[in-house]
Amino acid sequence: MATRRQPGSADTDAVDWGRGMACIDNQFVPIGEARIPILDWGFLHSDATYDVAHVWRGAFFRLEDHLDRFLQNVERLRMTLPVDRAGVRRILMECVRRSGLQNAYVEMICTRGVPPRGSRDPRQARNRFYAFAIPFIWIAGPDQWEQGLHVSVSSVIRIPPGAVDPTVKNYHWLDFVRGLFDAYARGCETTVLVDGRGNVVEGPGFNVFAMHEGRLVTPDQGMLRGITRQTAIEIADEFHLPWEARALPVEQFRHASEAFVTSTAGGVIPVTRIDGRALGDGREGPVTRRIRHRYWDLHGDPRYATPAANPRSRPAPRKAVSEAGASDGDLR
Ligand SMILES: Cc1ncc(COP(=O)(O)O)c(C=O)c1O
Predict the structure, then answer these.
(1) 52 lines ligand 1 (CB under 6 A)
(2) pLDDT single digits (tens) 34-64
């Protein structure tokens, strides 16, 4: 996969995140220097929620939708952000501006914070806000679209909604990580997890779609309500494509005529093989291609695009083989 390093080569201190910029306690720092307090329960207990927006060619995509989801989730975890919505927006913009990135992955995080000494009571912790902008991350980039992803259906159950609400974007990823290692062992590139009742739910950082009997099907329970998923649904409406949000049985996913996954980290990404078996002719399907093209076209639509730059921004080359790791000049 485009962004995956060779196994075993990760020396995290040496990872070059380029021009990334973070905001910690209202201070802007280069991403390589960003540090969080080790006693923050966001780190120690995964007691946190986050959201990831992206900037493409200098504009945020659906920024207000990401802010809506983030602020709702902060409230649902009974946290209080130390900044208001305008403050979050301003900090995200500033991280992007200071980074100079034209294509960026922009994360906002609210953690429970550090409790008073000796306390085990989450109500006593002062919640914290962190943010960063780093070069755009692809689950699978343009060079992989034609070939598509090889996905494994995991036997691992996604943490059930009765335990952790998956609509609150969270860092409970041990199930995904387990699924990923199983997938690699089977020669696959990524995984989708199941709900324990025979349905596919979601994968590490993405939602799932399958074409079944001429209808587009996407799960409606046990997963994050992805903003890219929502965009794909809106595109399906625009194209008068029939779609259903309902349970997606593993067998329907396996025998789909085509399938794709959706994520802020790469948009609409074709799935062409499931556990070694090709879907259709083993290439990106026509419906997936239409939705993918439209998804990227919408990045220029003022209904969705919010300029991240302002006149003080550092100029960044528009067509360079960008910090995104692929040319942003050709997304078709
Ligand atoms: C578990 C999970 N599901 C789905 C998604 C896709 O959501 P979005 O389209 O809002 O990026 C993500 C994004 O990171 C995720 O973490």
Answers:
(1) yes
(2) 999 999 999 999 999 999 999 999 999 999 9
